[in-house]
Amino acid sequence: MKVEIEDLHVGYAGRDVVAGVHLVAAEGEIAGLVGPNGSGKSTVLRTVYRHLRPTAGRVLLAGTDIRALSPGQTARQVAALPQERGSDFELTVAEVVVMGRTPYKRAFAGDDLRDREIVARSLSAVGMARHASRRFSALSGGERQRILLARAFAQEPRVLVLDEPTNHLDIQHQVELLALLRAQRRTTLISLHDLNAAASLCDRLHVLHQGTVVASGPPRAVLTPDLLAEVFGVRAAVTEHPLTGDPLIAFDHRRTA
Ligand SMILES: Nc1ncnc2c1ncn2[C@@H]1O[C@H](COP(=O)(O)OP(=O)(O)OP(=O)(O)O)[C@@H](O)[C@H]1O
């Protein structure tokens, strides 16, 4: 499902922190949002999953303004892994994941066989199948993250919105997550701080700086040493990954730009 963000203005307590953002994620495309701390990545994503309401501009899902959709209709199309990840659920892992099925249920309906199958499948997709009966609050940060991702998968959305999903994950689980997202071929909006991961995963990158998009395009075209210096304030060489051929950014960890 295509996502279009048109001239988006949005912020907090009457002050816009994102102003005039245009961004398109084509059907099946993985669109990466990158940018320094505070550049507005989470704010844009929160607008797509309707946690925030634009002060101007709009978000279209397959051509329809999300404000024309009911909360249930939105939840059947868009699932999010927000940056605020609760740890206080006194629920089991399976109970957290089955919450992803709520948009498909009538009031007071229980879980049916299909719900249970989808929960099992979503848990195995994130490598947590053996943990279904554990208490969510007793899991590590990375494990909780994978469970919340499983909940988003269980929602069977047409669009996935992931805010820093690799946060807390060890390198193996980061690689597995990226492989899983690539294999899904689902429209995905994802914010990432790891620019090498973004370069390897995303079809297109959108670089945010002070609330606007300053560059958009395929990773190879966008991630130039000049852009890395101007937007991120770092010195870096961009080469080719010897194993994958993806762009590989080698940062100078000794001094800034
Ligand atoms: N809940 C909030 N209330 C008020 N201001 C906020 C809130 N969340 C974010 N902001 C402000 O909005 C601006 C953009 O923040 P946002 O979280 O969208 O940036 P980000 O690019 O996701 O940053 P990071 O990389 O640090 O996660 C920042 O100046 C931030 O301080």
Automatic annotation (TrEMBL):
Domain ABC transporter: 3-235
UniProt-listed PROSITE patterns: ABC_TRANSPORTER_1 (PS00211), ABC_TRANSPORTER_2 (PS50893)
Signal peptide: none
Protein name per its UniProtKB record: ABC transporter ATP-binding protein
Domain of life, source organism: Bacteria
UniProt keywords, alphabetically: ATP-binding, Nucleotide-binding, Transport
Classification via Pfam families: ABC_tran
PANTHER family: ABC TRANSPORTER ATP-BINDING PROTEIN (PTHR42794:SF2), HEMIN IMPORT ATP-BINDING PROTEIN HMUV (PTHR42794)
SMART domains per the UniProt record, alphabetical: AAA (SM00382)
A GO molecular function held by the record: ATP hydrolysis activity
Keyword Cell inner membrane included in the entry's annotation: no
